[in-house]
Amino acid sequence: MVNVTKENFIEQSNDLIHHLQTAAFVAIDEEMTGIQVPNGSRRGPPRKDLPPKITYPDLKRAPERYSIIQLGVSLFHSNIVASPVKAEAPSDDEEEEGQMEDDVAAAVAAAAKTLPSANQAIDATEPTWTVRSYNFYMFPSSSARWDDASASREVVLNPSSVAFLNEHNMSFDLWTKQGVNYVTGDRAEQIIADYAIKHQEEQQQQQTKRSSQSVEQTLRRTVELTRTDDVRFFATTMATLREWLDNGGMFNQSTTTLLLPSCNAFLRRALYENIEREYPDLILENGGGGHIRVLRLSELEKAERKVKLQREAWSKMILNVGMWRVFEALSRACRGAPLSMQSPLFAPSFDTVDFDAVEPAWQGRRVPLVVHNGFMDILFLMTHFASPTLPDSLTVCKEMITSYFPVVYDTKVISTEHTAVWTNEQTNLSNLYNGVVRENPSVLKSIITREDSQQEHEAAYDAFMTGSIYIGLCKHIVRERSEGAMNSNPILGDMMHLQGDSEYPLALACDQREYFGRNKIFQMSMFTLDLQNSLADALKRGMISSAAYHVSGIDPSVATRDIVRCCSDLSDASGRKVEFNIVWVDDTTFIVAAVVRRDASSNGSTGNDAAALLQDHGNIIKQALQTRFSKQEKVVSLDEHFHALETANDEQLGWIGWTIDKVSSMLGFPAKRKADDVDVAARVAY
Fold this sequence. Notes:
By secondary structure, the protein is α+β, with helices and mostly antiparallel strands. It has 25 helices and 19 strands. Helix 8 (185-207) packs antiparallel against helix 12 (299-321) and helix 10 (228-248) packs across helix 11 (265-278). The chain is elongated and about 110 Å long. Residues 81-125, 209-217, 484-494, 501-507, 600-606 and 669-686 have low confidence and may be disordered.
């Protein structure tokens, strides 16, 4: 792991970009200045009985207000070696292709050759993984333009978050002094465009001789000095310049720089004009503090200076774009879009930039993004690099996320939804890493890393743990499935779902979601966010809203054991035991949902049979709840509860609209058209 600041950003971001497209997957984590914004008198996470589309407006306020301190990125490269049954020794050319040298396209092709296909025999040796981790410190530039959306957002610190990070040795000094700048995409593209235009203009100016300057420059009115002091200063300065030139000759003097005396802008212009006219081979620079710096250089030195200034201009552009360079590279890799290594943004140095290069049109493998409980991490990425203000609706927000990162895996979802082992265990990052990786020698030994820090809540180390957990969970799922119906599927045996859609058979597309939780994101509620379904989100752990019951208005003295007593020892007509989950909402509200426990031999499918079983068991639970809680308490299905929430929300919006109409009428403003009027007008227009 390496800490990345302004001092080494170009070098380390070059390293990340160089290895990114050949990574099997990328894991990220973030540390922020705050994670929750109090909503009036209520603090803490949203109520668990509220669907995501209702809680989202409150959740999005945190990434819009707070800032990322660290962005941790870990690249995981698979060292799987697979060969046909009758393998031949690799040729010298093939060995060279495996070195991942300068040509990224060749590196991608070489890496693709190491990935086994369905008709290849897999080496029985446990595959290993090479990890590269980067710990980026981010801090907005103090010199950002006033119209830059990123600059208009102040750095806000949440006291509890700061105290928590202090306990885990966060270097706030390094963050504020050496943090890398970040801008949104619109601003970054403008910075790059301005840089390219300026470079092109400078090239054109150098190719144009002074004698062929534009008419406007030739006819520009020269400065006329009239004040005695100005004339005297001008004459003395020019005499000093001539003496400097005469004493050493044009190119024989060891000192090639002369700093002219400080003066005002009017006199500097007069000096610029006169020196450029009399000594066109001299180079004039702003020396700072009202000085003009005069350079006397040979043709070779001029060429070297030109290259030096071009390199400095490119480096300045990269630092001004800052962390957007990393974000855009991650997004392109996740989308399967090419990274043009000759473009001003992704070239490793100015020397390799080709301003006329055409961006490759090929579509590569989509590199998955892996997170742990990562909804807020992704939202923070959106507000820092896409738009400081998130969409008002969750539907549009999901579409925004998938436009940047179409393939996402959340280890929190995988551990709680897609395995039979860790479903009811503590699944915070540290505990999960201990259980899945540290206590699993085969996984632990397979991960090769230069990770010299094991500081939890340092973004790079948390990203490393996240990716390592992902490997362990996938291997566990493969072992679970291989004992059942998945025995005949060789793809899962090698985590071949990582190859992406271009190499993945259409028939197995559902497997990526059903078995590995593709594009399902954990949320602190009863729901799992589904990025592939912009309109709806499913309940967790296979629960369905028609077989889950919302009980409110209970006596605060009621405890979990009372609910367990109520619903235990229930069975259906076939004698199958009724399983259930209990979710507490607050001291007077809880939810009980029928569930079907999956084990290692099950396929995890919740088809028609499972849905019918859940509904049958839900009805049994409902009867038990109504028997136990039938006085002052209210027992309704989650379907009914959600419908009541939507109705109340619609009524509230309607009351607000009615109030606005009344106030507008009292103030003499025209009344707003009703929805029916709009529909009628639309029909007439057609």
